[in-house]
Each structure stands twice: as C-alpha cells, then as structure tokens.
Amino acid sequence: MAGNKTWNEISSYSIFGALVLIGTVALMLFGKNSQMSHDIGPLLAGLAVSICLFRFGTPWRWLSFLVLASFLVVGPLLGQPGLIWMGGCIAGSQFGVAWRLSAVKPPVKSPWTVNGRGIGALIEARKASKEELLLLDGNKHERVVVEHGSARFEVAGSLPSRLVCHRNPDADNDASWAVLSRTGHTSDESVEVPMGRMKGLIPSQFVHDVGSIEAALNDFLENPKAESLDPEWNTLSIAFDLRLHS
Fold first, then answer.
1. Across all residues in the chain, what is the average pLDDT?
2. How far is CA 39 from CA 16, 69, 218, 235, in A?
3. CA-CA distance, 238 to 244, in Å (whole number)?
4. In the chain, at which residue ranges do the beta strands (DSSP E only) sit?
5. pLDDT at position 2, please?
6. Secondary structure (3-state) at 60
7. Interhelix angle 36-56/61-69, nearest 10 degrees
8. How far is CA 234 from CA 151, 183, 228, 231, 241, in A?
9. CA separation (Å) from 48 to 36, 45, 75?
C-alpha cells in the first residue's frame, strides 16, 4: 500500500511537471514576441535550479528565499523571459520532488515484529516476546502482539492468571482468528480481564495463567503459519468477539 501511494505521488508530480513544461515550451514557440535564443536560457536555468533545490535541498535557507523571490518578483518584471523562467521553476520543482520520492528506498520489513519493534532472528523474537509477556499488568503494559508476515499472536490482560490469547495465520481475515481455551472446562463463571481503560468479562474457559500462554507462544514462534491447530484453540466466531481492544 505504501509503495503504491509513493508511485501515485511520483506519477502525479511528473505529469503536472510535464504539463507545465509543455505549456512553457508552447509559449516559447508561439507566444507574442517569442525568441528562442532569448528564452531557452531562462527555461534551462529555471529547470536546473528548481530540480536541484527540490531534489537535494540546500543547507542555505537564503538560497530558497532567493529562488522564491525570483519566482514571485523578478520573473514577472522580465516579461516573457521571466514567464519562461517561472515555468521552468514550476516544472523543475515537480520533477525534483518526483526524483526525490523515487530515490527513497522503502524500509525492509523485519521477519518478526514484537509490539511494533522489528526483529530479525527467531531467537531474538523469542526473547523479546517473553520479556514483553512478563511485563503485562493490564494497565501500562496491556498487550503483547507478535507478528510474522500475515501471522499474528496476541495476548491481553494482566499477570499472573488473567490473560486472553489469540492467534491467526492471516490477520487480515477476521474469520480465521482462534482463541486459546481450556479443554474440559465446564464452569460458566466469567473473569474480569483488564486492558488499559477497559475491562472485559471473559468466560473462565478462555482465561489463562502465564504458563499456558508461554507454551502457546512457543508453539506460535515455531510454526506461525499453522492452520491446523490443537483442540485447545477455539476457531468459532466467539474467537474474534473475545479479542480485547483498549
């Protein structure tokens, strides 16, 4: 998505710059009192200065003000050569911005992400996710999110025993969430699970202690894309409904 947005911006700047340049060249060719020998210099100068300024920037603020002054004040005073200079500046600014955008390399996404922090190796992801897990207090530290591509693992709540856990091989698909449950648990009791400003009343069969969550986390880290899960993972619609968001 970000790559498409950047490409659309590059296209927009380039197209607008090309249209301004074509209009400026048309003015040179067909404008009143046109003289190519007099107009080509201002056009090339405007293009060169503006492209460099908007592509590379400048450490001297006064230079930017000088170009702006020439664009707004000096240009109109010079008649048609001034208009050609202004056209070159406008077109060059668009080309310079497009060049700058095209030169920016998109950031390389890390294989693993733990609470938004990119991590390169599995061993580091395991360490970071367990450290975050042990900080859960249902208040300032309310949530642990581990991502690997489209796969996602979530834990919300507070230690030591009020934790709700979800996983998904494709987090973009709301119907594919699974919630960790306690098999054979028959109690209808609900447990209050805190998460920041909100508290959720969760059926006790879906509330776990940290030991169960650590085991589920290890399983996810070993096989994040698993679609066939053990029986303790409930994949019914209640799984999505029980996700806690602050």
1. 85
2. 21, 20, 71, 71
3. 12
4. 112-114, 117-119, 143-148, 151-158, 162-168, 178-180, 190-195, 198-203, 233-234
5. 47
6. coil
7. 150
8. 17, 10, 11, 7, 12
9. 18, 5, 16
Place of tokens 């900080």: 135
Two tokens, residue 54: 């908007």
CA distance 216 to 227: 14
Instruction: Give the number of C-alpha atoms closer than 13 A to the C-alpha of residue 79, restricted to the C-beta side.
Output: 8
Task: Name the token pair of 110.
Answer: 């890390």
Q: Which residues lie closer than 8 Å to 211 by C-beta, 6 or more apart?
A: none
Closest CA to 95 of 29, 48, 59: 48
Least confident of 61-75, 143-157, 218-232: 61-75
Give start and end residues of each alpha helix (H) in the chain.
2-30, 36-56, 61-69, 75-77, 80-103, 122-133, 210-222, 238-241
Query: Is the pLDDT at 36 greater than 50, yes or no?
Result: yes
Up-side HSE of residue 189: CA atoms within 13 Å toward CB? 7
Distance CA 106, CA 38 (A): 43
- Go through 58-95 and write b for each residue having 16 or more CB atoms within 10 A of its CB, e for each that does not: eeeeeeeeebeebbeeebeeeebbbbbbbbbbbbbbbb
Residues 112/119, Cβ–Cβ less than 8 Å: yes
